[in-house]
Amino acid sequence: MRIKAITLRILQQFIHDKRTMALMFLAPLLVLSLMSLVFNGKTYVPKFGVSGQATILSATLEKHDAEVMAYTTMELGQTALKESKIDALITMNGTAMQVELEGSNPTANRAVMLVLGQSSQNLLSSEKQVQPEISYLYGSADMKTIDRFGPIMIGVFVFFFVFLIAGVSFLRERTTGTLERLLSTPLKRWEIVLGYVCGFGIFTVLQALLISWYSIQVLGIIMTGSFGYVMLMTLLLSMAALTLGTLLSAFAANELQMIQFIPLIIVPQIFLSGLFPLDTLPLWLQRVGLATPLYYGAEALMNIMIRGKGWSAIALDVYVLIGFSLLFMLLNVWALRKHRKM
Amino acid sequence: MNPGNPVISIRNVGRAFGNKQVLENISLEVEQAETFGILGPSGSGKTTLVKLLTGIDETTSGEVFVLGVKMPKLAMLQQIGYMAQSDALYTELSAKENLEFFAALYGLKGEQRSRRIKAVMELVNLEEHLRKRVDQYSGGMKRRLSLAIALLHEPPVLILDEPTVGIDPVLRLSIWKELKALNRKGTTIVLTTHVMDEAEKCDRLAMIRDGKLLAVDTPTGLLQATSTDSIEEAFLYYGGVRS
Q: Dihedral of the CA atoms B177, B180, B185, B186 (nearest 10)?
């Protein structure tokens, strides 16, 4: 009854506050669309400059999808390199080939080295080599970067926006005095926490549905598993974000201090979520990752969407996320003791 | 009034926050159906005392009883109507939505809920603004809505923390009329104030300063005991400031 009253009130507040509702629903779509455009999977095409005798390499380089500019003198080529018009300059010193890279962009460097490697292989062995047969266990040859980032970013945005909005809402109960007013009614502390979970829960279900649908159907992010599981994971992630946000709001004096939790709580989680390979990190930092909710959500979402795995692969992640949410809720009930002991 | 059976009994109460002693050894009793005023300058500990009465806060020493039950006790909160110093309203919601929310927290439902909402809004003269959003309310209107919410569940004990701040004299008069009417129906009212002419309307007054109880008496009793002409002078007398 009282939980229902809080749930209803949160829904009413949302309906009256169109802007916050838009932030929760539309902002993640906007950012995901932008990411999809940035990581659209087109590979970088390196620009080579050739001068002198090296011009004979032009055809071979172009065969490997590189752009080639021919310069009559080496000096002209070097000027072009200095002005970043080309990524690498190839010159011939007698029979020795010299390659100078512009060098300031790692992506361009790698692309240059890749083309060079392929080309030299081509030059050295004229006879037909035995081509290995290549197949993919998960994903495919045309899998793009966004397909890898997508599942994680769905988790990240759900977590980020729910954390912030739920945290600030709960904080405002305290700063506007309504929390004290609530605590002067026969409302139990756990009823407040549960009311918040239910009220925001309804919105996060809608949010999870919209974000998952948009990413898969509109942005075309790789999706080989069950949509139901994607929904379940995004929902569990938002529950963890909601309970963590409301808990941490107890340690913020105002909205600005709540924002200060973003670089402390949200950003490290993103870096440790598996967005970048964790194996290269120091062991202790990998362990820290194991203590963050986002890690489990991202792992499960990748297993579902990229690898098409089912319940047995995500069961542990599900239990861990439920555990996190319950822990945060209990801690929040305890933190409210600061305002009323009973 | 029913002497000997106090509605509120405060016994040797002290409250400290860390090293700072906010209330010191306060003892007083509030009888049924009286309006009991707590008078003191800001920072004197009025709000702290009120929070002990409402069960939001706990004493460091001594005991507080409301209707014979030792506080804090969750079940007793149903018997208390509380109006905080800050308006504590959900400004993005309409007055009606605020009232419905708090009514639900106090367990009012259906026909009884709408009847009570109508009754309290008439009482504070806001029935025309029921569907207006609270962020469109003026300061005085918000104060009245807070009072209306405190009265929703017809509590036998009403605790008001500076109830008439920001309310114009005409409306203040009508609110006092209603408070007196509630008294006649048996409701016990405890209110804090630092407005002297308002203090004179209380049946009895407690004067506190720096967390200490200076005196408890009827307004006229206080004037006689201090041989002064106004509550303000009496207050200064007890505070050790002689004019």
A: 160
